[in-house]
Amino acid sequence: MLQENGPELLFMKMDSRFLFNLKLKKGKRSDWELYFINAEERFQSGNLIKKGDSLLAKLDPFDNEMIFHVQGDSLAGQVRRQDGKGTALKLRAAKGRSNRFAFPVADYLGDINGTYEVTFFLKSGGSDPSVAIFKQEGQRLTASFLRITGDSRFLEGVIINDSFFLSSYIGYSPSFYRGRIEKDGKISGETVGARGPGQRFEGVLNDEASLPDAFELTTLREGYSRFDFSFPDMKGKKSFTLRCTLPK
Fold first, then answer.
1. Higher pLDDT, 215 or 64
2. In CA terms, which of 3, 115, 169, 175 is 20 to 30 Å from 196?
3. The pLDDT of residue 1
C-alpha cells in the first residue's frame, strides 16, 4: 500500500459519511508523518507506524488514534479514543484521489460566493450567531464558519446544482455541512454530527456581517472589581491562587 519513497495522498471515508484527505510523508526516522489536508491547510497530527500487522497513527493533540489493516491497495480500520472509551468510527482509505466529494456534471451551479450572516438553531431552543465566508471556484467550494463558541475553518467541498457539501478533519471530530442555495439567495442547511445530533442553520448574504465583541460577552457583576481562581496539583489539592483585579 505505502511506497518507500515520496508522499502518499489518501482519500478517507469515516463512518460512511465523513470524507477527507490526508498525506503521508516520510519522516526523519522510519515513521510516516501524517498531514490532514483541508482546503489550504496542511495540519500535521502525528506519525504512522507499523505495529504488528497493523498501521497505527496516534493523534496526540486530540487523544485519538487511527488503526488500519492493509487490504490490497486500500486500508480499513477505525478512529478511536486512546483510552478506549466511547464509540469507535470505521475508516477506509484509498490512494490517489484528491477530490473528497465526487464532481458529477451539474445542470447549473448556484452562486454562493461571499460573506453570509448565519444563525445556528440550538437543540435547547436558542440560537447562535455566525459569520460564514464562502469561496467558489466552479464546482469546488471552500468555507469557514466563524462562531462565538469556536470556528470551523478550512472546510472543503463541492457545489452540485443548488446544493453544497463541505467537510474537514484534523484528528478530533469530523465536520460535515450540507446545505442548499435558495432562489432568493439565502442559504439553509445542517451540520451532521459523528456521535450526536447536528444543528440546523440559515443564512443571508451580508458583506458587513460580524460577530459580537468578544470582550463584552463575559463581564463581572455590578459591584465587583476582582476575582480569584486556583489550580489543583497532581493530587487534586489547591496549589496556588491567582487574583485578578480590573483596572480603575
1. 64
2. 115
3. 52
